[in-house]
Design a protein that fits this description.
Layout lengths: L3 H23 L63 E7 L6 H6 L4 E6 L16 H11 L7 E4 L17 H7 L2 H7 L1 E3 L29 H8 L17 E4 H5 L3 H13 L4 H9 L2 H6 L8 H9 L6 H27 L19 H27 L2 H8 L10
Parallel strand pairs: 1-2, 1-3
Antiparallel strand pairs: 3-5, 4-5
Helix pairs in contact: 3-8, 12-13
């Protein structure tokens, strides 16, 4: 009887070992977060897991718990409190392709801390785990990697200096916008879209319920499904809106109001979604405002945006509208002069021309006089707007927020 016990013990141990072996085979490991060849494997990158330190620093995670979405913490989105000082620490995050020329940054913005991530070069010192989602992958990677060592303000900008993404008042020049951006304003509101102009993006832009194809909004058809995946605890809004085009500034407090694990979950979604690079990036272009303000639509009045964010105060909505009308008039005069240049005389213009041009030989002289007058008026209004914006009390009054003597911002 006693001789049978060792055999029984051996049989039980064998069964336990086999069960453990087949269980390990059945548990999937996390997929690689990036290529493991072509130089990427030897690049030191920090890809944190959801629940603890990095398992591997060479381009992939050996094993980690699947990131899970969390219910948005609405109560954390509260106004910040600026300090009287003006020397807030800033970092500008720039996603770029190898072909992009970013020499303008060091020339126009000397001393600014810049974090440049090269999307299409796995051998670059800073690059995303995957080149997908346009700027989204790089923005999220920066937030994940720097979550514990953030500056006061982080600017997320594109690599191009002059582009329609930027504000017309500054000649569409990114460097002028960045220099003019009010640090106290960013600290106060937490999230600032760097573009003030509503078109495109406001007052309503993407409609999740719209199922028909749209050439200009290809992402609209898949928006509802993406929303359920990204924000499963939140109701689907009737529309999303903010000024285009994924350039914004964040305060440190606003970034930290969201758990780091949530940023990991968002980046993991970008990497795993079957949507194309273009569509996945477009989904996020009109989702940032929801993440950082919990509002589906974020469309500050244009004159308020210019005044409080950039110190350009026109004196109210009506004077700002007059300024915009002058810009429109200048553009129309330019079109009329170009038409004259192409056809020599106005009466030789195409029959289908919609321009209402006077049929006189003095047309060009008259137009140039008008252009000079409009440009002079624009210059005067711009100077006055900058002077108003230099006064913190007038900025506060125009934007309808409290101001106390000595605030200094």
């Amino acid at each position: 009887m006693y001789a049978k016990k060792p055999m029984q013990f051996f049989f039980m141990v064998t069964i336990i070992i086999l069960v453990a072996f087949f269980y390990n085979l059945a548990v999937p490991t996390a997929p690689s977060l990036g290529p493991q060849t072509g130089g990427f494997e030897d690049t030191m990158i920090n890809f944190p897991s959801l629940n603890g330190p990095v398992a591997s620093r060479r381009g992939h995670v050996k094993h980690h718990q699947q990131p899970v979405p969390q219910k948005a913490r609405v109560a954390t989105f509260v106004p910040g409190t600026p300090n009287p000082r003006t020397n807030y620490s800033r970092t500008m995050v720039i996603p770029r392709m190898q072909e992009d020329n970013i020499a303008w940054i060091s020339k126009e913005l000397p001393g600014l801390d810049v974090s440049v991530h090269v999307a299409d070069d796995p051998k670059a010192s800073l690059h995303p785990p995957k080149n997908k989602g346009h700027e989204v992958m790089i923005y999220l990677t920066y937030l994940i990697d720097h979550y514990d060592r953030l500056p006061d303000i982080v600017l997320f900008m594109h690599a191009h200096r002059w582009t329609h993404h930027n504000n017309g008042f500054f000649g569409f020049d990114a460097s002028q916008m960045i220099r003019a951006l009010s640090g106290p304003h960013v600290m106060r509101v937490g999230y600032v879209n760097m573009r003030c102009h509503w078109n495109p993006g406001c007052p309503e832009w993407l409609h999740p319920s719209r199922m028909e194809d749209s050439l200009g909004k290809q992402e609209e058809r898949v928006l509802a499904q993406c929303w359920r995946e990204l924000f499963p605890f939140d109701s689907l809004p009737s529309f999303l809106a903010q000024p285009c085009c994924a350039q914004f500034a964040l305060s440190k407090d606003r970034i930290l109001s969201i758990p780091r694990s949530q940023y990991i979950f968002y980046r993991d979604w970008i990497m795993r979604t079957p949507l194309s690079d273009y569509i996945s990036g477009r989904i996020w272009e009109y989702s940032w405002q929801y993440i950082f303000t919990h509002n589906a639509a974020h469309c500050p009045a244009e004159h308020i945006c210019y005044c409080d964010a950039f110190g350009v105060c026109f004196g109210g909505e009506v004077p700002y509208s007059q300024y915009v009308q002058l810009l429109s008039r200048k553009s129309k005069i330019g079109e009329e002069l170009n038409l004259l240049d192409r056809h020599g005389r106005v009466d030789q213009a195409p029959n289908n021309s919609s321009l209402d041009l006077p049929q006189t030989s003095e047309t060009e002289t008259s137009l140039r006089v008008q252009l000079t007058q409009v440009e002079a008026e624009l210059k005067t209004r711009k100077q006055e707007a900058l002077q108003r914006g230099a006064d913190p009390q007038r900025r506060a009054e125009e934007c309808g927020r409290p101001w106390r003597d000595g605030d200094g911002f």
